[in-house]
Amino acid sequence: MKAIERRLAGYMAEQARAGFTKWKLSLADGTFIGRAGWSPWEEGAIEIGYAIKPDFWRNGYATEAARALMTWAQTERPQYPLVGFALPDNEASQRILKGIGMEFVDYREIAGARFAFYQLRS
Question: Which CATH number fits the domain that encloses residue 80?
Fold first, then answer.
């Protein structure tokens, strides 16, 4: 199985198992701009994730997606702790996490890379 097939299979299995995953983001005209959604995380938490194609940065799409995801999580999965992470030099993504109510916890190694780790404030 190729890498893309494995990733898609993982997303489909995650959706079936958890009731959520990461989905594609498109503009009203169908233009693909990235992905956003949730993934199960450690100890019953769910992790917010978003990635916008560079051509579409600085248009507020990541912020809009993150706010919509946070609203969904607080409505549909209020019992789950919410976490997020961003590369240490990705200040824009860290501003978004803070802007939706998350606070910096510490730096952690995730999948072999160092990330700034955030949790939703209680």
Answer: 3.40.630.30
